[in-house]
Amino acid sequence: MSSANRPKRDEKLKMEILNLPTCAVLRVTPPQGGHEQINSELDLREPVELGNFSLIGDRNYVHDTRKMAYLIEPPQDQRLDWDLNEAFDDRIPKNHSLSEKLDNLLRWICDNVEKFRAPCDGENSKLSGLHTDFVSYRGLLTTIMCSVYEQKENWILGVTLYKGSRYLCQYSTLEQIEREKNKSGWFERVAAWGYKFEQYMTASRPGGRPTPQEPINEKEEFCSVVRTRLGQRHSLVYGAEVDGVDDRLVAKYPEYKHSTRRYVEFKTSRFVETSRQRKNMARFKMVKWWAQCYLIGIPRVICGYRTDDGIVEQQRPANGKGH
């Protein structure tokens, strides 16, 4: 049978993936104890990008790169006066309490079943499975990695074992649901500032101009799907939202064209003025930044330092990747 007919042969597998059975749910409380008990060595192979997709409009899945954003850095000597409140009232906010589970990632898998073909499947036969131990989103893996440093935050993990692959999905705890319901307008504004900083730093095409004056749709995103291995035994495939791509790196290093090393992460933070603030930032923010970047293989984080009124006065890079 020709390769053109393979997707039809795998149609049943696609439908089975989209209708995964009910999962087992685990509630996990982080361990109590000092950080000195933790083995800091993490044998995670550098991720390889399998593909990507975009979410547009009201988070509608499309199998293309239309929401990829391109890094546009300001001149180094330029004094910044970026107002992150620009078009705040006209933005389309993202509902962070809405659980999408793995739906969009599974749609991408269904569109790319052939990328999971192994030698044991043969050339023309039906795939026996994904030949992957764990399928997830990066957010859940970040939570697991950081839980050894976070002793107050519980989390709930759902697991579905299907044809040898474990599909991992994070669910909100009662505490998180209650916190989201009672969240003040200030927290919504701070979250919106992060999206607006991305808009100041990127354009929709290489060499384009940022358009921070336009309202932003926080529901839209670009997502990369990667494969990696933990140690010698466990294979993982997971999706991760990507903030931007540095196309200059691709021009300089052509081998980065299909590497996550070309990506950039954007963050915002209040100006750090005291040693206590610096310590808290490292403990509660930067450890999560590092975990996010390490998991996807992003080498660079650009942080916009803002005032309490949401004015970015400077931006500077921080190392992200530990590979």
Number of domains: 1
Quaternary structure state of the chains depicted: single chain
Judged by helices, strands and strand pairing, the structural class is: alpha+beta
- Give the spatial strand order of the biggest sheet: 1-7-8-6-11-10-2-3
- Number of helix segments? 8
Q: In whole angstroms, how far apart are the ends?
A: 42 Å
Spans with pLDDT under 50 lasting ≥5 residues?
1-10, 30-40
- What is the residue-averaged pLDDT? 86
Q: Estimate what percentage of residues fall within beta strands.
A: 25-35%
The largest sheet, given as strand count, sense and whether it forms a barrel, is: 8 strands, mixed
Secondary-structure element pattern, one letter each? HHEEEEEHEHEEHHEEEEHEHEE
Name the helicity range: 25-40%
Roughly how many Å is the radius of gyration? 21 Å
So what's the overall shape?
A: globular
Count of strand segments: 15
